[in-house]
Amino acid sequence: MTTPLLPQQIAPVDDRQSELTRRYLTGDHKALFGYFMALRAETDRHLASALPAVGGKPYPYGRCEEITRDLFARLAQRLQRPDCAVEQGLRAFADAGGILRSVWGVLRDQYFQNALQLGGLYVDVSNDTVVVTKPKIEILPIDACGLVPVRDLDHFRRTAQAYWGAELYANHLVPTLAPLLPILSVSPGKLAPGLQSACDYMIALMRLDRFRQAEAWLAEGPPPPEALTASFLAGVPADLHPLTGQRREEALLVCRRAQAAGCWGDDGWRNARVLDYLRLLREAGHR
C-alpha cells in the first residue's frame, strides 16, 4: 500500500511521471521559463506594494511562501481555460495524470523553500527571496534540485536555527495549540516571535505520529524567558492563555489529552486549532 503524501510533500517521480514530463514539459525549456517569468511579473505587481519589509529588507526578500501561493493560484486559474501553447501543454500534462502541486521542504541543507512540482521538474518561482540578486525562476529536474521533506521536528529546528538565526523555546504559552505548534521561535532582525510551524506540512507531520514529537519537545525544550513570555502573551487572546502557573505541565497535559482523545485523526479539531492560531495572529497584528 502506498503511503499517502503529506500536504506539500514532494511526490515520487516514477516511470510514468518521467514519461509525462518528457512528453509535455521538456520540449521547449525557454518557453516554459518565459511563461513562469511572466506569471511571476504579475505576482510581483500584485504583492510588491502590499507586503511590508521582512527584517528590514524590502520585497521579495523572505516572501517565498506568499509568492509561490499567489503564482500557483494564478496558474490554476489560467489552466481552467488555457490560451497559449505552454498552458495547453500544462493542461494536457495534468489531464494525463501529471503531478502539478505546491511543495515545501529544506533546500540544500540551508533554508526552507516553497516551490512547484511539475512531474519530474522542480520549478522555484521565488528563487530570489533569500539572495535577491539570483534569477527569479529556477527550473531543475526534481532529483537534482536539493529539496527534501522535513524529516522530523529536530530537522525543522536545526534548519530554523541556521536559516532564521532562531532561538527556539517550548510552546508553554498557548497550551491548546501546543500539540500542533510546539515551538516558539525568536529571530531578532528577521521574524517576530511566533509559533512554529503553521504550514500544512508541519501540522500534518505533528499529527502523523500522534503528537509524540511535540510532546517530547514540550517536555524537554527550554521554557521561554519571562521577558519574552510577558511580551508574547500580550498579543495572545485571553482565552488562549495558560490557565495555571504550571505552564510546562499544562502544555503537556493538553498534548496528552489530545493524544488520548484521538485528536491527531480529527480534521475538525485540527481546523479549530488553526482558526485559533489565525485569531492569535490578528490580535498580535492589532497591538
Automatic annotation (TrEMBL):
It comes from the Bacteria. This is Uncharacterized protein.
